[in-house]
Amino acid sequence: MLILKRHFKTNIRGHLTVGGADTVELANKFGTPLYVVDEQRVRENYRRFYKAFASRWPSVLVCYALKANSNLAVVKILQGEGAGADVSSEYELRIALEAGIPGNKMVFNGNHKTPRELELAVANDVLVNVDSFQELEAVGKVASRLGKRARIGFRVNPDVRAPTHPYIATGLRESKFGFDVASGQAFDAYKLAARMEDVDVVGIHAHIGSQILDAAPFEEEAEKLMALVAEIKERLDIYLSFVDFGGGIGIPYKPDDRELQPEQVAERMVGVVERVVDEKGLGKPTLVFEPGRYIVGDAGVLLARVGYIKERPGIPTWVAVDAGMNALIRPALYGAYHHIELANKILEKEEVLVNVAGPLCESGDFLGKERKLPKVVQGDLVVIFDVGAYGLAMSSQHTAQPRPAMVLVNEGKAEIIRKRETFEDLTRLDQIPGWLK
Ligand code: LLP
Fold first, then answer.
1. Is the distance from the beta carbon of residue 295 to the nearest atom of ligand 1 less than 6 Å?
2. In angstroms, what is the span from residue 291 Cα to ligand 1's centroid?
3. Among the atoms of ligand 1, which is closest to the Cα of residue 155?
4. Residue 222 burial (CB < 10 Å; 0-12/13-18/19+)?
5. Which of 1, 167, 204, 369 yields a CA-CA distance of 20 to 30 A from 355?
């Protein structure tokens, strides 16, 4: 049964429209496979998320997680909305700067930051969420070399179990990220940093996982972090003015997935923060959030053209399209479900059972299995939903497939924001050594 999220529409030609643009026309004009991003939906998602927290707490900084989609135009939209940035590499940091996000509205995360990355972060006043004792030492060195004070927080591991795919659950005790809270390791990190000359210890950070559709783990995270904030104030007299809860609010991918409202999460998390701040007489910290998927996930679709159809007795019909795991790896990698429809037959009755495959030479190269679609013919346009986050961002050139183009739509206008790769792009960096010439 066709169930479209509310920001999608259909037109009288029976086509799906995104941001006022007919997807069939987009595919004809820009080619396939094509990522399409709905600007208004990005803005709506950001505003809703920000308001959920900012209407309940005086100081909130929403740092968009660039890893979800680091396209310059997408980041520019969010910069215009007043977002900060969560960056996890040198180039993400530079993209955020390029889009006009000031360094002091950025947090830098990750378990392996190179000296060069740390330098760029410290030079730009980015808050560095330090992930290990050795990294603390490295930050100290960089700061003293630059003659600047480094703003730091610690990534702590609060051991919160959040129901999600094991690859994207990051808050468990055994995960590679952060300082362990339970054993006192996190506390020790603060004690050590307090004695360092060139660092200002201003924050605390955790990220418990991604694609979480339940508010309870976030509340538990808030409890654990705020207990530590209170302990650090009490025993070390360090006031942490940035409490960073990471990202992780999920989105419904399947038609029957539940939706986690940011307001529900905000209500419960801010409730905890308020209580601890009151009880312990703390100042009111800035609450930092790092949403990626929630902001851009449902704002993006992927359009792919049907090339071949193969009927096989006893199994679903194979429908081969021109986008595969190179363009969207989530189904192959995580077994992730992405809803699929025919964009040019969006209102037609779904009557055939199909598997949708990509063009790569791997059995794992599929976009969806056992899906109901209207009768499919060559040239039909498949639309894959909820690919705005971790779609193009995780794409590759496997089997020398160029990465798809990405187009931004708004009120019927459409413009390319990422060009389709060409043969030259694919071979530009390769070189033939002298002895083979
Ligand atoms: N902050 C930190 C420190 C993170 O590690 C992540 C995501 C985020 C924020 C943003 O999380 P979000 O709000 O988007 O859930 N490739 C996987 C997702 C990996 C997420 C890793 N960290 C996927 O396609 O589902």
1. no
2. 8
3. 3
4. buried
5. 167
92-150 pLDDT, tens per residue? 999 999 999 999 999 999 999 999 999 999 999 999 999 999 999 999 999 999 999 99
Q: Using the predicted structure, report yes or no on whether residue 364 has a pLDDT greater than 90.
A: yes
Report d(CA 206, CA 88) in Å as an integer. 14
Does any ligand 1 atom lie closer than 6 A to the CB of residue 109? yes
Q: What is the mean pLDDT of residues 224-245?
A: 97
The model's pTM is: 0.97
Which residue has the CA at smallest separation from atom 23 of ligand 1? Answer: 390
The domains located in the chain, with CATH, are: 8-38+297-427 (2.40.37.10), 109-291 (3.20.20.10)
DSSP states of 318-370: EEEES--TTT--HHHHH-----EEEGGGTTSPP-EEEEEE-SSSSTT-EEEEE
Residue 303 to residue 233: CA distance in whole angstroms: 52
- Closest to 84 (Cα-Cα) out of 340, 289, 314: 289
Contact 388 CB / ligand 1 (< 6 Å): no
Ligand 1 in reach of 293 Cβ (< 6 A): yes
| Nearest CA-CA partner of 329 in 319, 320, 340, 338 | 338
